[in-house]
Specification:
This protein is mostly beta strands and 809 residues long. It contains one helix and 60 strands.
Length: 809
Amino acid sequence: MATQPFFFMKLANGRLRFAITDSAGTVLTAETSTSRSFAANTWHHVGVSWNIKPGSNQTVLQIFLDGDLETTNTTTPYRSTSSGNITNLSSIYIGDNRTSGITPNTGTPNGANGTIDEIYIYARDISATQAEADMNIVRTTCTSLDHFHIVHSGQVVGCNPANVVVEAHDAAHALFNLAGTTMQIATSSSHGTWSGISTINPVNDTGNGTANYTFSNESRITLGLTNGFIETLNINLASGQSGPGQITETSGAGVICVPSDYTFGSTCDSNLTFLEAGFLFDVLNHISEVSQTVTVSAVRKSNNSLTCTPAFASVNRNINFTCNYNNPATGSMPVRVGNKALNSGNSTTAACDSSGQNVNLSFNASGVATTTVQYADVGNMTLTAKITTGGLNMTGSDNFITAPAIFAFSGISTAPIKAGSNFGITVTAQNSANTTTPNFGKETTAEGASLSFNKCQPSGSNSVNGSFTGSLGSFTNGVATASTLKWTEVGNGDITATLTSGSYLGSDITASNNTGNSGTVCNGAGNVGRFIPDHFDTIVTQGCNAGNFSYSAQPFNVQVKAMNALGNITINYDGTANTSPNFSKTTTLSDANAIATGSLLNASVPLASFTQGIANTTPNYTFTSALTSPATIKLRAADTDAVSSASGIIEGSTLIRSGRIRIQNAYGSELLELPMPMVAQYWNNGSWALNSNDICTTGVSLAFTDPNLADGLVPSELCVLDTGNPGSSGLGCTASGIASKRFKVPPSNGNFNLTLRAPGAGNTGSIDVTATVPAWLKYNWTGAGNTNPSARATFGTYRAPIIYLREVF
């Protein structure tokens, strides 16, 4: 600042110092008593204020830190004596020692290395309360002040101050917090005195119906206007210089009257009438159809002051009551006062009208009577009392809001409901007597209800809550229906409906209800559902998966997945001890192709097999006759709720082949290795064929038996060319055979590659070779039942089938 500078800085020792020089050259210095450390990357709110007044210790300096008034070096706030003032205010520099050479002693230029934001400058000194309010301002969106909104009752008896609510709105008519903004206030009649009823700062009344107020992180304040004149006036607000940029009650979006800017009833910027006499009563915002006891005072302004005196006392009077709809603007039910419906027919099923009803009230010596008010619907209503007989002309009115008591449920889709599929529910807004409030949903900005879902069952570590989606449609005559709700899981639950706005028409009254037993969510089993899977998927791992087939009677794996309609596993379809109760069901497998040449065995899947929506089982399909050509079966799963894979996306299948392993007799020289054909076969079109797709069969081993103990060959003189002893055959030679002659388990394209080592000179005779094979590859070789395959190897009985042999060298 020019002429005489002031400084606010952080000292090297962590204290804050505020120094100011008055016009007489006196330096006034306030310094915090506590040295503080300020962590990097941490925001702090700081502020100073001063009020220079002549006289001993009349000048006050304050330092604020994080919304608190700091203790200063001598007194708190710091007090000193000044004989001057601050003049010639010009530029204020924030975050820079702009003027060199005038830094106070012990001051440190550029002593605070950081970022400064949200600067507020007031034309007066502030309090710690206002500093804290400024600190707490949160700007969630980048909006600005667009217009002011005035709310009052439209009329008031002149002996009472009128409550005038002023709101700061942005262009979307949302409340906007102001800090440091000064608003000018004036009445059109230049009458009245202003005061603060609910404000942080005092209201500065400047006379003749004018005043000003400086906001301190406030979006709504309540002012009081006292006026001894019996008149109708309008209230005018302004902030900023006159012209296009000035903010008033009709600037910006405020130029168009919308419900968010209603002053009284359904009008904006309404006039305020001060009456000589009238009725005073206050109907509180309440739940629809709950009877309200209301005190009605007949008052008039005293002849000699602004105090209220009874307009009449100790007398019965017929007072005419009428009701009007504000929001919604129409209705079908009347307000009832003293059990009288306020329409010409005194009908509880007819709307309010201009006739209303006369209600006899008994006023006591203080001019006070008591009656009851009820309204069976919802909305913002105006209740007016008046008397125009016997030389009296008095009126009074009050606005009130009635909100729904609960939301009731009906039309819940019948169980079972498929997980992930649409289901429906109907929600009705009701009053305290459990009857429909038809005006709910007809508000200018329609009120509504939001739905949420709580999973009740199953519980346990294997259970999940799932995902709930969907919403209610608009309310019509107090009723709304949802038809596209979805829950992704299995089990049951309860739905809760809650007033979407959380405050019906801004009344701070909400409404909620749920489908739980006795009004408690998940008080036992939920009343929405049972939910079941939408379908099963069956995934088959074939007996010989790499060869893309299964043998008849060979177990293969089927994985059954319980799925919702969205294609996800229903985790709660579980039969283990980790959920309670279990919602899985016994499931049965069948052949969807119904080939009818055999039977699917081990086809039942117990409910306990399901873990978090998945079960694995190992059925087999057995042909009635081994001489059956290949056929493909499709695995279909269905549980006792008729949930089936028939409607699913995946139904696994497998090709079934009737198979066997065959070993053929062989003969040769005792001096040469002897190949013995050993292959996997399957029946196809009337004959056995090599099953070249078999690259999977395991569990095969060989054994030797001696059919003729008298010949020159014993089992110990033979072995199988293998990887060593015992090898995969169980009879492998000690020395590993060459790779091309080794016994192969699993087979190579159906061939086990069986070769016996030459027994050597003099070792002639026969040995029987028997293969132990899986049960599904045994065969009825002799007509006496299925047995393992065997064949005879003979050495030396026949000449070798070699005429000429020559080594190439």
